[in-house]
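Bumping with the actual sequence this time:
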Amino acid sequence: MIKVAKFGGSSVANADQFRKVKHIVESDPARKFIVTSACGKESHEDHKVTDLLYLIEAHVKYGVSYDSLFQLIVDKYQRIEDALGLHVDLKREFDHIRELIDQGESEDYLVSRGEYLTGRLLAEYLQARFVDAADVIIFKYDGEIDMERTGQKLREYARQADRILVPGFYGAMPNGTIKVMSRGGSDVTGSVIANIVNADVYENWTDVSGFMVADPRIVDHPLGIPRITYAELREMSYMGANVLHDDAVFPVRQKNIPINIRNTNDPESPGTMIMEDCSEQDKNDPPHAITGIAGRKNFTVITVAKAHCSTMVGYLRNLLQCFEDCGVSIESAPTTVDTMSVIVETDKIRKQLYEVIGLIKERCTPDDIRIEEHISQIAIVGREMRNQPGISGALLSEFGRNHINIRTINQSSDELSIVVGVADREYEKAIQAIYAKFIREERKR
């Protein structure tokens, strides 16, 4: 068996966390490929190393001294090295980084050094072969990862050691220059490696024991989700359940490799298993009708009214073209016989709102236009909903019982999710009502 184990920033925040990682890795010889993020926060008052590196880049850009910020990073890594008795030449590493910063090295190089330095220390501590991500994660010039070249290089290193460690978040362009991914990109590094080595499972170690049915900041002690499909994960992640980087799904899904979200601080917890198909496991352990509830605030709903617009050929296309021409992406577009609504993130349309409205009036000649802001979108997701009649009706009834006004509602064609729009001020109340009705009451039966 082969496991790829990725450890997030909280898992490598200090020497104590390093010790937990070592225990986890050494407890299972199948964990042959290790990926690490940069050191995260040790406390609420602390700073993530990557955040400090971005701040240093800003200081350099405006010609402001970055000495104090740089020293914070030096001290953090020195504390880890001293506590664990490691022998990485940190002085040489930091002198080299500082020299390149002063020579105008790229931002991508600078912000990647958190993963690089964490990887150097962790590799020595785990007695693993350190492999610089710049030597194995190869990008194409269009920004996509070159899976063929990356595979060739990774397999070469894998043949040379029983266990290798690769820093996450960055790689190199074909000309050798460093390129970073979007924040959280270490998840993607681990997923790419899992794809290439045909791993049996991709473990993603973080500071939570997998996915929760609802946000614990809104619902007290929500149930954990033992299993979730890739399709359900996409729905929940898009609506705000951000335990895993969105792009980390595709490389492993391609080869049907399950992802296991685990907690470094509670390694005995099985966490959440993300799979293409959960049907076999569901036979023995039937899931709730609702797998999870997730949502986001701050949407704007633009409703265009025109008699019989749904029968007018090209009307919806003309309406959506107004948004496209202004560079505004659309969340969804529910329609009725005489109305078409377009839901967008408020921040993405704020500057172009009146330009969009002007185009709609010119091209669509509506009878009326209504603009409603401060709307939340809540996704109720569950692979079992299609097998349980009456879910939508019960949802509407529960909202009515709690005096929550539904502004929009949209059900996916595969019946995997129902997305409702409510006022921002009723967002938390709506999620609590859904959880109480469909999770807490069902558990009592």
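The tokens above came from a reply further down the thread. The first helix runs from residue 15 to 26.
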